[in-house]
Amino acid sequence: MSTHDTQPDAAASSETDTDRDTVVLEVFRYQPDDEDAEPYYETFEVPFEEGMTVLDALLHARDYGDGTLTFRHSCRQGICGSDAMFVNGRQRLCCTTQVSDLKQPIQIDPLPHQDVIKDLVVDMDHFYDQMHAVDPFFDPDDPPSNELEEQLQSPENREKIKMATRCIWCGACTSSCNIAAGDNEYLGPAPLTKAYRFINDEREGDERRKQRLEQMTDDHAVWRCQTQFSCTEVCPKDIPNTEHIQELKRLAAKYDLSLF
Fold first, then answer.
1. What is the pLDDT of residues 67-113, one digit of tens each?
2. Do 84 and 114 fall into the same domain?
3. pLDDT-based confidence at 151, cuts 50/70/90?
4. Can you name the residues that pair with 28 across neighbouring β-strands?
5. What is the rounded distance in angstroms from the CA atom of residue 141 to the CA atom of residue 70?
């Protein structure tokens, strides 16, 4: 997939909101279940409005241009993670990306390193499988007998894992990771961040924490990370994924040395 722009954001454009009447999109189109179909880019010109996001522009292109244009979206508030795409050469959430911050034409591709189902929709099954592989749920030693009783957490511990809890499963970080692209067994940055969240939660059971740490010592877990920081750079929730993975490496090394 070609790109027009590898620069991140607003500094790339000299136009202001009032200079712009329309937004030009170049959108990746592909229907792989059609044997005769070839990928191509379709150009849409949509009216610009102040505060318009890339998702707003895509919705207008679909609703008033071509109703067969296919992409995922849901909450439109940067929470569901469903509209992560490759916009001007960078993984972004379309619902939080302002068109005024981007060079035109705005090129929109599906997330790289994923199989395309149709147009901008990619197959996320493997990503979800990797997320579930780290068992993203609590397993405390002594859960409360009363279902209404809280499992208390100290403010200090909450602060430690706070950023890791913000993951919205959008897949942007994994899509940006060269290691994940070349190693289908590598857990990837999002699952490792999820593992960090539970390993460092003081409410997690001791035995379960050791099992999680043992998983981190696998050849396709933390040791495959090459500290490229791409996952941290593209995360729409500003999660320091690389920092979390480095912390997991230290904990995994201690586990290997039987220091737990």
1. 999 999 999 999 999 999 999 999 999 999 999 999 999 999 999 99
2. yes
3. confident
4. 41
5. 46
Domain count, the chain: 2
**Residue 141 predicted with pLDDT over 80:** yes
Q: Which residue bears the tokens 């200090």?
A: 156
Matching residue, tokens 């994924």 = 241
Report the distance separating Cα 206 and Cα 102, nearest Å. Answer: 48
Could you tell me the residue range of the domain that residue 103 belongs to? 10-122
| Predicted local distance difference test score (pLDDT) of residue 147 | 81
Q: Which of 122, 147, 178 is the last residue of a domain?
A: 122
- Give the pair of three-digit tokens for residue 218: 């696998």
Cα–Cα distance for residue pair 123/177, rounded to 1 Å: 17
Closest CA to 74 of 89, 84, 60: 84
- Are 139 and 160 in a shared domain? yes
Kindly indicate the confidence band of residue 153, based on its pLDDT and cuts at 50, 70 and 90.
very high
Residue type (1 letter), 107:
Q
